[in-house]
Design brief:
The complex is a heterodimer of chains A (134) and B (187). Chain A is an all-alpha fold and 134 residues long. Helix content of chain A is 54%, strand content 3%. Chain B has a domain of 122 residues. In chain B, 50% of the residues lie in helices and 0% in strands.
Chain lengths: 134, 187
Protein backbone atom coordinates (compact mmCIF):
# COMPACT_ATOMS: atom_id res chain seq x y z
CA UNK A 1 0.00 0.00 0.00
CA UNK A 2 2.86 2.31 0.99
CA UNK A 3 4.64 1.71 -2.29
CA UNK A 4 1.49 2.35 -4.30
CA UNK A 5 0.84 5.69 -2.61
CA UNK A 6 4.46 6.72 -3.16
CA UNK A 7 4.06 5.95 -6.88
CA UNK A 8 0.80 7.92 -6.94
CA UNK A 9 2.44 10.85 -5.17
CA UNK A 10 5.38 10.84 -7.59
CA UNK A 11 2.91 10.79 -10.51
CA UNK A 12 0.94 13.69 -9.07
CA UNK A 13 4.11 15.70 -8.45
CA UNK A 14 5.34 15.05 -12.01
CA UNK A 15 1.95 16.01 -13.43
CA UNK A 16 2.06 19.28 -11.43
CA UNK A 17 5.55 20.12 -12.63
CA UNK A 18 4.42 19.30 -16.18
CA UNK A 19 1.40 21.60 -15.85
CA UNK A 20 3.38 24.55 -14.65
CA UNK A 21 6.27 23.88 -17.06
CA UNK A 22 4.82 26.02 -19.86
CA UNK A 23 4.20 28.96 -17.57
CA UNK A 24 7.69 28.54 -16.13
CA UNK A 25 9.32 28.49 -19.55
CA UNK A 26 7.33 31.60 -20.56
CA UNK A 27 8.58 33.27 -17.38
CA UNK A 28 12.18 32.20 -18.16
CA UNK A 29 11.91 33.84 -21.58
CA UNK A 30 10.69 37.06 -19.93
CA UNK A 31 13.52 36.90 -17.39
CA UNK A 32 16.12 36.68 -20.17
CA UNK A 33 14.53 39.72 -21.84
CA UNK A 34 14.32 41.65 -18.56
CA UNK A 35 18.00 40.99 -17.81
CA UNK A 36 19.01 42.71 -21.03
CA UNK A 37 18.33 45.98 -19.21
CA UNK A 38 18.47 44.98 -15.51
CA UNK A 39 21.29 42.47 -15.18
CA UNK A 40 20.38 41.25 -11.68
CA UNK A 41 16.62 41.10 -12.24
CA UNK A 42 14.69 38.33 -10.54
CA UNK A 43 10.96 37.66 -10.61
CA UNK A 44 9.21 38.58 -7.35
CA UNK A 45 5.78 37.06 -6.64
CA UNK A 46 4.95 39.79 -4.10
CA UNK A 47 5.68 42.53 -6.61
CA UNK A 48 3.61 40.54 -9.10
CA UNK A 49 0.72 40.37 -6.62
CA UNK A 50 0.76 44.15 -6.07
CA UNK A 51 0.87 44.75 -9.82
CA UNK A 52 -1.98 42.27 -10.32
CA UNK A 53 -4.29 43.64 -7.66
CA UNK A 54 -3.90 47.40 -7.95
CA UNK A 55 -4.82 49.86 -10.69
CA UNK A 56 -1.89 50.76 -12.93
CA UNK A 57 -3.16 54.05 -14.27
CA UNK A 58 -6.27 52.88 -16.12
CA UNK A 59 -9.75 52.08 -14.78
CA UNK A 60 -9.24 48.36 -14.40
CA UNK A 61 -6.68 46.15 -12.68
CA UNK A 62 -5.92 42.53 -13.61
CA UNK A 63 -8.03 41.49 -10.63
CA UNK A 64 -11.10 43.37 -11.95
CA UNK A 65 -11.78 40.35 -14.15
CA UNK A 66 -9.45 37.65 -12.76
CA UNK A 67 -10.32 38.30 -9.06
CA UNK A 68 -7.78 38.94 -6.30
CA UNK A 69 -7.02 35.23 -6.12
CA UNK A 70 -5.94 34.01 -9.57
CA UNK A 71 -6.71 30.42 -8.62
CA UNK A 72 -10.41 31.35 -8.60
CA UNK A 73 -12.61 31.63 -11.69
CA UNK A 74 -13.37 35.21 -12.73
CA UNK A 75 -15.88 37.13 -14.77
CA UNK A 76 -15.49 39.79 -17.46
CA UNK A 77 -16.19 43.11 -15.76
CA UNK A 78 -18.49 44.51 -18.44
CA UNK A 79 -19.97 41.53 -20.29
CA UNK A 80 -20.18 39.14 -17.33
CA UNK A 81 -18.65 36.29 -19.36
CA UNK A 82 -17.15 33.57 -17.14
CA UNK A 83 -13.33 33.39 -17.18
CA UNK A 84 -11.50 30.23 -16.10
CA UNK A 85 -8.99 30.71 -13.29
CA UNK A 86 -5.82 32.36 -14.59
CA UNK A 87 -3.35 30.36 -12.53
CA UNK A 88 -1.98 27.29 -14.34
CA UNK A 89 -2.25 25.51 -10.99
CA UNK A 90 -6.07 25.69 -11.39
CA UNK A 91 -6.38 25.73 -15.19
CA UNK A 92 -3.67 23.51 -16.72
CA UNK A 93 -4.19 24.85 -20.26
CA UNK A 94 -3.02 28.34 -19.21
CA UNK A 95 0.25 29.51 -20.86
CA UNK A 96 0.49 26.38 -23.06
CA UNK A 97 -0.01 28.44 -26.25
CA UNK A 98 2.56 31.22 -26.50
CA UNK A 99 0.68 33.06 -29.27
CA UNK A 100 -2.39 33.19 -27.06
CA UNK A 101 -0.38 34.31 -24.04
CA UNK A 102 1.26 37.10 -26.06
CA UNK A 103 -2.11 38.20 -27.44
CA UNK A 104 -3.72 38.46 -24.03
CA UNK A 105 -0.78 40.23 -22.41
CA UNK A 106 -0.84 42.75 -25.28
CA UNK A 107 -4.57 43.39 -25.01
CA UNK A 108 -4.99 43.32 -21.26
CA UNK A 109 -1.89 45.39 -20.53
CA UNK A 110 -3.40 47.96 -22.92
CA UNK A 111 -6.52 48.04 -20.74
CA UNK A 112 -4.79 47.97 -17.37
CA UNK A 113 -1.50 49.83 -17.88
CA UNK A 114 -2.27 51.79 -21.04
CA UNK A 115 0.79 50.31 -22.80
CA UNK A 116 2.42 46.93 -23.37
CA UNK A 117 3.80 45.32 -20.21
CA UNK A 118 7.55 45.04 -19.76
CA UNK A 119 9.20 41.62 -19.62
CA UNK A 120 9.92 42.28 -15.93
CA UNK A 121 6.23 42.92 -15.17
CA UNK A 122 5.21 39.75 -17.00
CA UNK A 123 7.79 37.67 -15.12
CA UNK A 124 6.59 39.07 -11.77
CA UNK A 125 2.95 38.32 -12.56
CA UNK A 126 3.68 34.74 -13.62
CA UNK A 127 5.76 34.20 -10.49
CA UNK A 128 2.69 35.32 -8.54
CA UNK A 129 0.38 33.03 -10.53
CA UNK A 130 2.64 30.06 -9.80
CA UNK A 131 2.46 30.55 -6.05
CA UNK A 132 0.56 27.60 -4.60
CA UNK A 133 -0.71 29.61 -1.63
CA UNK A 134 -2.42 33.00 -1.26
CA UNK B 1 -26.80 61.11 -91.46
CA UNK B 2 -27.14 63.02 -88.25
CA UNK B 3 -29.84 60.67 -86.89
CA UNK B 4 -27.71 57.64 -87.82
CA UNK B 5 -24.83 59.09 -85.85
CA UNK B 6 -27.10 59.58 -82.82
CA UNK B 7 -28.44 56.00 -83.03
CA UNK B 8 -24.93 54.68 -83.35
CA UNK B 9 -23.75 56.71 -80.35
CA UNK B 10 -26.80 55.68 -78.26
CA UNK B 11 -26.38 51.98 -78.95
CA UNK B 12 -22.66 52.18 -78.24
CA UNK B 13 -23.32 53.77 -74.84
CA UNK B 14 -26.03 51.18 -74.07
CA UNK B 15 -23.57 48.38 -74.77
CA UNK B 16 -20.99 50.10 -72.55
CA UNK B 17 -23.49 50.45 -69.66
CA UNK B 18 -24.54 46.79 -69.98
CA UNK B 19 -20.91 45.64 -70.03
CA UNK B 20 -20.14 47.82 -67.03
CA UNK B 21 -22.96 46.41 -64.93
CA UNK B 22 -21.99 42.83 -65.78
CA UNK B 23 -18.42 43.56 -64.67
CA UNK B 24 -19.64 45.30 -61.50
CA UNK B 25 -21.98 42.44 -60.59
CA UNK B 26 -19.30 39.83 -61.16
CA UNK B 27 -16.89 41.81 -59.03
CA UNK B 28 -19.48 42.29 -56.28
CA UNK B 29 -20.43 38.63 -56.09
CA UNK B 30 -16.76 37.68 -56.01
CA UNK B 31 -16.25 40.06 -53.07
CA UNK B 32 -19.39 39.10 -51.14
CA UNK B 33 -20.68 35.68 -52.16
CA UNK B 34 -23.27 35.52 -49.35
CA UNK B 35 -24.64 39.04 -49.92
CA UNK B 36 -24.91 38.57 -53.65
CA UNK B 37 -26.68 35.24 -53.21
CA UNK B 38 -29.14 36.94 -50.87
CA UNK B 39 -30.09 39.75 -53.22
CA UNK B 40 -30.74 37.41 -56.12
CA UNK B 41 -32.72 35.09 -53.85
CA UNK B 42 -34.93 37.94 -52.59
CA UNK B 43 -35.91 38.81 -56.13
CA UNK B 44 -36.85 35.35 -57.27
CA UNK B 45 -38.09 33.35 -54.24
CA UNK B 46 -41.27 33.44 -52.21
CA UNK B 47 -41.36 34.76 -48.61
CA UNK B 48 -41.72 31.23 -47.24
CA UNK B 49 -38.63 30.09 -49.12
CA UNK B 50 -36.78 33.12 -47.80
CA UNK B 51 -37.80 32.23 -44.27
CA UNK B 52 -36.64 28.65 -44.81
CA UNK B 53 -33.28 29.93 -46.08
CA UNK B 54 -32.97 32.22 -43.06
CA UNK B 55 -33.72 29.25 -40.76
CA UNK B 56 -31.02 27.22 -42.53
CA UNK B 57 -28.53 30.01 -41.96
CA UNK B 58 -29.47 30.16 -38.28
CA UNK B 59 -28.63 26.50 -37.88
CA UNK B 60 -25.22 26.85 -39.49
CA UNK B 61 -22.55 26.54 -36.81
CA UNK B 62 -20.41 29.59 -36.08
CA UNK B 63 -16.87 29.72 -37.47
CA UNK B 64 -14.63 28.11 -34.79
CA UNK B 65 -11.99 30.85 -35.18
CA UNK B 66 -14.68 33.46 -34.51
CA UNK B 67 -15.81 31.64 -31.38
CA UNK B 68 -12.26 31.21 -30.06
CA UNK B 69 -11.15 34.79 -30.79
CA UNK B 70 -14.27 36.76 -29.84
CA UNK B 71 -16.07 34.36 -27.52
CA UNK B 72 -13.51 34.61 -24.71
CA UNK B 73 -14.85 38.01 -23.62
CA UNK B 74 -18.46 37.90 -24.75
CA UNK B 75 -21.08 35.74 -26.40
CA UNK B 76 -19.91 35.20 -29.99
CA UNK B 77 -22.77 37.27 -31.37
CA UNK B 78 -24.22 35.77 -34.52
CA UNK B 79 -23.02 37.58 -37.67
CA UNK B 80 -26.65 37.91 -38.84
CA UNK B 81 -27.41 40.30 -35.95
CA UNK B 82 -25.70 43.29 -37.57
CA UNK B 83 -25.42 44.59 -41.14
CA UNK B 84 -22.09 44.44 -42.95
CA UNK B 85 -21.44 48.15 -42.39
CA UNK B 86 -21.61 47.63 -38.59
CA UNK B 87 -19.16 44.73 -38.72
CA UNK B 88 -16.81 46.74 -40.90
CA UNK B 89 -16.78 49.60 -38.40
CA UNK B 90 -16.32 47.21 -35.47
CA UNK B 91 -13.51 45.29 -37.12
CA UNK B 92 -11.59 48.45 -38.01
CA UNK B 93 -11.75 49.78 -34.44
CA UNK B 94 -10.84 46.71 -32.34
CA UNK B 95 -8.03 48.42 -30.36
CA UNK B 96 -10.85 50.62 -28.92
CA UNK B 97 -13.60 48.03 -28.62
CA UNK B 98 -16.26 49.41 -26.22
CA UNK B 99 -13.53 50.71 -23.93
CA UNK B 100 -11.35 47.63 -24.19
CA UNK B 101 -8.36 46.59 -26.31
CA UNK B 102 -9.57 43.70 -28.49
CA UNK B 103 -6.90 43.96 -31.20
CA UNK B 104 -6.17 40.92 -33.37
CA UNK B 105 -3.23 39.81 -35.49
CA UNK B 106 -3.46 40.88 -39.14
CA UNK B 107 -4.33 37.45 -40.65
CA UNK B 108 -6.99 36.72 -37.99
CA UNK B 109 -8.51 40.16 -38.44
CA UNK B 110 -8.77 39.63 -42.20
CA UNK B 111 -10.33 36.20 -41.94
CA UNK B 112 -12.88 37.24 -39.31
CA UNK B 113 -13.85 40.44 -41.14
CA UNK B 114 -14.60 38.46 -44.28
CA UNK B 115 -16.62 35.92 -42.30
CA UNK B 116 -18.70 38.58 -40.52
CA UNK B 117 -19.35 40.68 -43.62
CA UNK B 118 -20.26 37.65 -45.75
CA UNK B 119 -22.73 36.39 -43.12
CA UNK B 120 -24.07 39.76 -42.02
CA UNK B 121 -27.71 40.79 -41.82
CA UNK B 122 -29.35 41.27 -45.20
CA UNK B 123 -29.67 45.05 -45.52
CA UNK B 124 -33.25 46.34 -45.08
CA UNK B 125 -34.54 49.66 -46.38
CA UNK B 126 -35.63 50.74 -42.87
CA UNK B 127 -32.25 50.06 -41.21
CA UNK B 128 -30.77 53.23 -39.70
CA UNK B 129 -27.80 54.78 -41.42
CA UNK B 130 -25.12 54.70 -40.15
CA UNK B 131 -25.87 51.29 -38.67
CA UNK B 132 -25.40 51.03 -34.89
CA UNK B 133 -22.42 49.22 -33.37
CA UNK B 134 -24.47 47.78 -30.52
CA UNK B 135 -26.82 44.92 -31.29
CA UNK B 136 -29.06 46.16 -28.47
CA UNK B 137 -29.66 49.35 -30.50
CA UNK B 138 -30.94 47.46 -33.53
CA UNK B 139 -34.71 47.87 -33.92
CA UNK B 140 -35.23 44.10 -34.32
CA UNK B 141 -33.50 43.53 -30.97
CA UNK B 142 -35.54 46.23 -29.21
CA UNK B 143 -38.77 44.82 -30.65
CA UNK B 144 -37.90 41.26 -29.56
CA UNK B 145 -37.14 42.39 -25.99
CA UNK B 146 -39.77 45.11 -25.44
CA UNK B 147 -41.86 42.97 -23.08
CA UNK B 148 -39.02 42.60 -20.55
CA UNK B 149 -39.39 45.05 -17.68
CA UNK B 150 -36.50 47.03 -16.20
CA UNK B 151 -36.92 45.10 -12.94
CA UNK B 152 -36.25 41.83 -14.73
CA UNK B 153 -33.20 43.30 -16.48
CA UNK B 154 -31.86 44.15 -13.04
CA UNK B 155 -31.85 40.47 -12.10
CA UNK B 156 -28.32 39.79 -10.84
CA UNK B 157 -28.31 36.62 -12.94
CA UNK B 158 -28.39 38.82 -16.06
CA UNK B 159 -24.99 40.55 -15.90
CA UNK B 160 -25.83 42.87 -18.82
CA UNK B 161 -27.94 43.11 -21.95
CA UNK B 162 -24.85 41.87 -23.78
CA UNK B 163 -24.97 38.54 -21.91
CA UNK B 164 -27.41 36.79 -24.28
CA UNK B 165 -26.54 33.46 -22.68
CA UNK B 166 -28.16 34.47 -19.40
CA UNK B 167 -31.53 33.66 -21.02
CA UNK B 168 -30.68 32.02 -24.36
CA UNK B 169 -29.02 28.74 -23.43
CA UNK B 170 -27.55 28.06 -26.89
CA UNK B 171 -26.36 31.61 -27.55
CA UNK B 172 -22.73 30.46 -27.64
CA UNK B 173 -23.59 28.32 -30.68
CA UNK B 174 -25.31 31.23 -32.40
CA UNK B 175 -28.74 29.70 -31.76
CA UNK B 176 -31.55 31.77 -30.31
CA UNK B 177 -35.06 30.63 -29.65
CA UNK B 178 -37.36 32.05 -27.05
CA UNK B 179 -35.24 32.95 -24.04
CA UNK B 180 -35.90 31.78 -20.51
CA UNK B 181 -35.44 34.59 -17.99
CA UNK B 182 -33.66 33.22 -14.92
CA UNK B 183 -35.59 33.27 -11.67
CA UNK B 184 -34.80 36.16 -9.35
CA UNK B 185 -32.50 34.90 -6.56
CA UNK B 186 -34.05 34.92 -3.05
CA UNK B 187 -33.01 37.97 -1.06
Amino acid sequence: MGRLSVVALVLVVFARVGIAADARSYMETQLVLARETQVAFNADPDRGARFFRTAQGEDWSCSSCHTEDPREAGEHITTGKAIDALSPLSTPSRFTDTTKTDKWFRRNCGDVVGRECTAAEKADVIAFLLQPTR
Amino acid sequence: MNSRLITCFASASLVLVALGSVVAMTWFSAQHPALAADTTMNASTSPSEQRAAAKRRQREPLLPLYVSECGDCHVPYAPRFLPASSWQRLMTSLPEHFGSDASLSEPTLGELSTYLVDNARTPRAKDPDPAPLRITEMSWWLRQHDEISERRWNNPRIPSRAACDACHAKADEGRFGHGKIPRMPKP
